[in-house]
Specification:
The complex is a heterotrimer of chains A (223), B (195) and C (245). With 223 residues, chain A is mainly alpha-helical. Chain A is built from nine helices and no strands. Chain C starts with a helix and ends with a helix. The chains are: A mainly alpha (223), B alpha/beta (195), C mainly alpha (245). At the A-C interface, helix 7, helix 8 and helix 9 of A face helix 5 and helix 6 of C.
């Protein structure tokens, strides 16, 4: 298993752009927000949690953008076909693949979130929560999104469709993430949002690979 | 000895339509089946069905553990041939024997590219790496879709030799092709289009 | 007839087509009866709300349509499961038949909510919890619709939309829960008009009749669509040709 995860990460590392581009996209998006809708334009108590919430939404969208490439190359070069018919169970291989995606996108963006948070005017004590919610919540994004990526991989241009399929499912993750930040900023001690975020992530990790495997088998039949 | 492949009234379907008339066939160990048929007659779909990827069919079939080679080679262009072979072994939960892998790459004339990225190899060279993958897979049944594509004369000779060898050691090959396989002992299976 | 035989027979489109006839007629009659009784009762005889007056009466269409919108989606999820587990082709017919009906009901719930909201809250649109979950439901429907549009092969179209419906159905309770949670956070609970515990029977009984009537109507429409789709898909078989004469 470890060998497979290592291979997935190695491939992500070699594929120019898989890791770098989402990162740059996020930086640019943060800049656009900071310029186009600076935190000072919000009103009242919204200001304090504004930056954290914006950052969450941008991470979510960055994740969505990166999902289109999750299976596309391997679908085109026949690797998915080999994986689907290998003795190793497909959901296990996908668990590794999606974990690698999370490490390359979700985890990396999480690690950079304090820096981006500062750019968006997030207060220092809120930075910790932003970091924590992203750390707990981004696996849900990768694992929920993988099924959508699997179902749309056979279409040449699937970006908008992928968003349509996946964004409604992202809503709970965003709500729990943003709420935890909101509570922290407003001094409410309410760990429930974090727990719920963890529940969503665990459910996504547990069920996602199976749904994703089913989606890939359907897409393989379209070749 | 039980047959390696048995088809009983197998008909592949696409979008709810039959692709060819029902097939009944038993393939014994050590035989080569050449799959013939016009474009669109369902050769690739039959191979994909036997491989378990295509699930729209009527009838039944049984097949021994098999290796599939479609138009897409199943090799990652960002990995080197050696890394690809390593991953292929991992998919079958095996550790790659590196010496054996180099020997195989040597045999198919691509050992000097063993550590370069697949993307830098020509189409024919990539096909040769694929041959090394089959050779190392140690699976009884090979399902090959147009295996002679993109190979030069030398490569075609190597492939023919490999196929003869595989059948001689009790393996089975089902090969879809437009050009006749240059091997005498073979079974022809023609896919008749349904009107 | 045992449940098991019934299940097996459902696999036969021809058998379904026959058995659906009486059910469809039954649903149609029930819908006509219940809806005419319910509408007159709700619009004429039910007392006006002491705060909202007659604007309250939109409740009689809004709440049933919202309930049905959700039921149909969950029904599609169940049909999706049936398609995967038993490979029953009728399940895809059911999904295809439910999709536009469910979408219409969701849109109706959103629209009637706006019409109700204007005189009551003074706005056509309010981002309250129920509005958001209904809107998400609409997008879940649209997602399945868009995916179906993109896939040519009918068999795979069925499988893909079944998978999506299952995934959506698993997510619906989480979405609902999170949105309710979000709503209580962002606004004090002032808009719980429909949850007033002490609604008198002369107000909620017509709502019940309307809900049953709308359910029957939807059952009628879905069965009719399913029959039509079965005929279309089986057009080349002898029994359909016989039927067509």
């Amino acid at each position: 298993m470890w060998r497979l995860l290592k291979r997935e990460i190695m491939v992500m590392w070699r594929a120019t752009g898989v890791i770098f581009n989402p990162l740059m996209f996020l930086f640019l998006a943060v800049m656009l927000f900071a310029v186009g809708a600076p935190p000072s334009t919000g009103g009242g108590s919204a200001v304090a949690s504004y930056g954290g919430a914006i950052l969450w939404i941008l991470v979510l969208l960055t994740n969505l953008l990166s999902l289109d490439g999750l299976f596309r190359r391997d679908y085109d070069n026949g690797m998915i076909e080999q994986m689907a018919t290998a003795p190793q169970p497909l959901f296990m291989l996908l668990l590794m693949r999606i974990s690698a995606h999370w490490i390359a996108v979700g985890l990396l963006l999480t690690l950079l979130s304090p820096l981006l948070g500062v750019l968006l005017g997030v207060s220092v004590n809120a930075l910790v929560v932003v970091f924590l919610t992203l750390l707990i919540g981004t696996p849900a994004l990768s694992f929920l999104g993988a099924t959508g990526a699997a179902l749309t991989v056979s279409f040449a241009r699937s970006g908008a469709l992928l968003g349509l399929l996946i964004l409604p499912l992202y809503l709970p993750t965003l709500i729990f993430g943003a709420t935890a930040i909101h509570d922290q900023v407003n001094g409410v001690d309410n760990p429930a949002a974090l727990y719920w975020l963890a529940v969503v992530s665990i459910l996504a990790i547990g069920l996602g690979p199976f749904a994703c495997a089913m989606g890939l088998r359907i897409s393989l039949e379209m070749q | 000895m039980p047959e390696a492949i048995a088809l009983r009234g197998l008909v592949c379907q696409r979008a709810g339509r039959d692709l060819f008339a029902p097939l009944d066939l038993r393939v014994e160990a050590g035989s080569l089946v050449e799959l013939r048929g016009a474009n669109g007659s369902g050769k690739s779909t039959l191979l994909r069905t036997l491989n378990g990827v295509h699930q729209q069919y009527r009838g039944q079939f049984t097949i021994d553990p098999c290796l599939f080679q479609g138009h897409r080679l199943g090799l990652d262009e960002l990995l080197s041939p050696l890394e690809n072979l390593r991953f292929a072994a991992a998919l079958h939960d095996r550790q790659l024997d590196e010496d054996g892998a180099f020997a195989a790459l040597e045999r198919f004339g691509v050992v000097r590219y063993g550590l370069t990225r697949m993307a830098d190899l020509s189409a024919g060279q990539q096909r040769r790496v694929a041959m090394a993958r089959w050779y190392l897979a140690a699976l009884p049944v090979w399902l090959l879709d147009e295996p002679f594509t993109a190979l030069d004369a030398d490569g075609q000779a190597l492939l023919t030799q490999l196929m003869v060898e595989h059948c001689a050691t009790g393996g089975v090959i089902v090969c879809a092709t437009h050009m006749p396989v240059p091997i005498e002992a073979k079974t022809l299976l023609s896919l008749a289009m349904v009107a | 007839m045992g449940l098991k035989t019934f299940w097996h027979k459902l696999g036969s489109p021809r058998w379904f087509y026959g058995i659906a006839n009486p059910w469809r007629v039954g649903f149609g009659l029930a819908a006509a009866l219940l809806l005419s009784v319910g509408l007159v009762w709700a619009l004429v005889y039910a007392p006006p709300d002491y705060q909202q007056g007659n604007a309250f009466r939109i409740f009689y269409i809004h709440v049933p349509s919202a309930m049905i919108a959700q039921s149909i989606y969950i029904g599609m999820g169940v049909a999706g499961l049936v398609l995967f587990v038993w490979r029953m082709k009728l399940a895809d017919v059911a999904i295809a038949a439910c999709l536009p009906v469910g979408m219409t009901m969701t849109a109706l719930a959103l629209f009637s909510g706006g019409v109700w909201g204007k005189p009551t809250w003074g706005t056509w649109w309010e981002w309250d919890g129920r509005t958001v979950s209904t809107l998400v439901l609409l997008f879940l429907y649209i997602g399945i619709y868009a995916l179906r549009q993109a896939i040519m092969d009918p068999e795979l179209r069925g499988k893909a939309s079944a998978l999506l419906a299952i995934v959506g159905t698993i997510n619906i309770p989480i979405i609902k829960y999170s949105v309710d949670w979000w709503a209580t956070l962002h606004q004090p609970a002032t808009f719980t008009l429909t949850e007033k515990p002490a609604m008198p029977p002369e107000m909620y009984l017509p709502a019940l009749v309307m809900a049953l009537g709308l359910y029957s109507f939807v059952g009628y429409v879905i069965l009719q669509r399913m029959q039509g789709l079965v005929l279309e898909r089986e057009a080349r078989t002898s029994w359909v040709r016989e039927l067509a004469g």
